[in-house]
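Sat 14:20. Reprocessing the chain from the morning session after the first attempt stalled halfway. Input below, unchanged.
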Amino acid sequence: MSKAKTNLDLIQWLGHDMSINVFSYLDNPRDLVCASAVSSSWNDFVIENGLCKQLCLKMIPEISGVVRSIEVDNLFVVDGNKVGYYTEKRERLNRNHRVYALLAFSLIPMNNCIAQAIYASSTNDHIRKRLANTLEPRDITEHGPSYWSSTGKSDPSATESLLYRLYSKICLVTEIHVQPFQDYLNDGFPIYSAKAIQFKYGWTSDPIEIDSKFIFRDKMAFSRHGICTYNSPIFPMSQENKLQHFKLPEPVLCIGGFLLVRLLGSVQKNGKDNLFYTCISHVKVVGQIISPEFIVRRGGFDDMEAVASNISSIQDGVGVGM
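Finished this time. Tokens:
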């Protein structure tokens, strides 16, 4: 074989269209990054054809609105310094390649995206029936049944709200699991579920309201300062002692890092005081998070209001109070 043939690059030999087809079979961002490191021509091919972007949007198409906020603004933060508008096409391609590659590497599948229980609109017993119990995977601990309970209400249509902080400001959520509490210590083994349930995602525009332990100093702070980026449909709840799965109509990109669970109405009276209660054993959020390290170190996502405005065309409810 001649020297000219042995030095022929595979991409040149296959041609542009066939090479694109071959690279499209790489479904792991690590493989694509490794391929771009084979040679300068392979690196140029990956960058110039935006293959990292294509793979990232294939993995999570809902992320397009968020990353668009970086591309439109032409801002990228490196070591705390903002780099202005890139006039050269190659420099823009290089930057977008880094953004999408880092984003793809930063996706973390989570069995439960909830990091912290913050507050409940009411609590019957702040020691034994506190909201943090809903993150305990066991139904019964050494201290007894593990669940949260509202205070008793005479009105069965009263709404309760549970606020949680997620592991990241940006999560791709597919479904939420909620299990009502069944009281095995009373006659009839009543189940204190809500009539219906709704989920809201967003952030607080006044971070001073939260201390270092994520505890709200003012329980109504989120109602006053909260910004909602997504309202789920209202789902009926069943009076069943099981983890009920509430699958969203499609995977939702949740911006802001907070989940508000709205429990709409009560169905079960307590036989002792004849009041309605809502009690929850478990709450889980299933999906993927974008590593907080990516958000903090790489910038572009910290301005939550700007991000929300950029995805307003693909998600409803932006700018609505929680």
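The longest helix spans residues 89-105.
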